[in-house]
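Handout, section 3.2

Students often ask what a structure token actually looks like in practice. Rather than define it abstractly, here is a full record for Pyridoxal phosphate homeostasis protein. The first block is the sequence as you would receive it.
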Amino acid sequence: MIAPIAGGPASAQRREELRHNLADVRGRIAAAAAAAGRPADELTLIAVSKNWPASDVALLSGLGVTHFAENREQEARLKVAAVTKYLSGRELDSEVSSAWQPHARDVVPEGDADQIRQPGPAAAPESGPCWHFVGQLQRNKARPVAGWAHWVQSVDRAPLVNALAGGALSYDREIAVCLQVSLDPAGYDTGRGGVHPADILALGDLVAASRGLVLVGVMGVAPRGLPAHPAFARLREVSDMLRREHPDASVISAGMSADFAEAVAEGATHLRIGTALFGPRRGVP
């Protein structure tokens, strides 16, 4: 069963751990921005909360973090429901989990997404956390993701655009979309997802023409085992190309705990930070 959020020493200790980690990350972001000659306030911190409990999201939200990212639909749907109820002051003891346990009885049915969905991306920070989906998304998961995500950062193919747009319309909301770009040196998907840079304009046109979706920019993940800086330089070039056709698509989502300084140097606007905030990654249940 879902354990309640705990008070007392354990909760206070975790709050202090997160407070310390957040202060350290913010300091590192400010230093990276200064080194790149950029103002730190143009950078958005996204806390990657995958595999971490709803209680951690609630604590970081209380410390001023407004953007959170998940990569598995089932885990995210449960977590969003718990955090939403907690932050609205309802059912604190029974709804906010201190550990995510993927048992069937804990899963929020897809039909309940109407109870947790929020307005489109612009209104999200004022009504609770802004939720991002950052994992590789299967077409059959697009509709349930549309019920809770304000942003989907991993759109990399036309069938997914159509499925996500249908989901957004079914919930009468708009979803911000980043096009995930393959940053492999040859421009091909190596298992981490991503559209070939040569295909970015066609995919961007499709998103921009789709009701329920708002094209906001690009996202990329540096290839494993290769220097991050050249990869982020390629992402910036793709972003420039996209913006020539879609000037409002100004987001560059790049950089994680180990490489966000390189991403900032290449114009990243949104940083996806997990380990540096929450600690070493937990094993996937």
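Discussion prompt for tutorial groups: The two ends are 14 Å apart (CA to CA). How would you have guessed this from the sequence alone?
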